[in-house]
Amino acid sequence: MTKGIVIGDADSLIALLLENDANNKQAQNSLAKLNKAETVIIYPNTAIAEAITTILRKYSNPELAGYLTRQYKENIFRVEYVDEGVMRMAADLFNPKSSKQNTFFDAIVAATAKSLNADAIFSFDRWYEKVGFKLALDLE
Question: How many CA within 13 A on the CB side of residue 55?
Fold first, then answer.
């Protein structure tokens, strides 16, 4: 794999932070490969907000939600702030009649990837492949 751009989804952050997450080991391995290849990982600001909210609500882990919030405040992540163009592109990609698992947040990640001409998306959600993206875990 060569240096490139990968857009991160909330599920990759959650998998990296929660040791008992089913995708933790795969997330750690993917992150190591991406770092070795000097790949730039960019998170839409909405993905960070979604991860913080999910960790707090679904996993009832205020300490970890606070940790992720501090990481954001300390500029640990490369962040792409979602603008009107990305939101409109996401609205075109979003299908409310598809699976409840594919949210408008996912459409924002895909639209961000499209707008930045990303090489892949750091996620475990195969929906991204259905809209034309590779997943980071499938990169060589």
Answer: 27
Torsion of CA 32, 16, 40, 77, to 10 degrees: -140
Q: What token pair was written down for 20?
A: 């008992």
CA distances from 9 to 45, 55, 133 (A): 10, 14, 13
The model's pLDDT over 50-95, given as tens digits with 9 standing for 90+, comes to 999 999 999 999 999 999 999 999 999 999 999 999 999 999 999 8
Distances (CA, A) of 120 to 52, 97, 100, 128: 23, 25, 23, 9
Domains and CATH numbers, the chain: 5-138 (3.40.50.1010)
Reported as a pLDDT band with limits 50, 70 and 90, residue 98 is: confident
- The crossing angle, in degrees rounded to 10, of helices 45-57 and 104-115 is 150
Q: Which helix (H) or strand (E) holds 131?
A: none
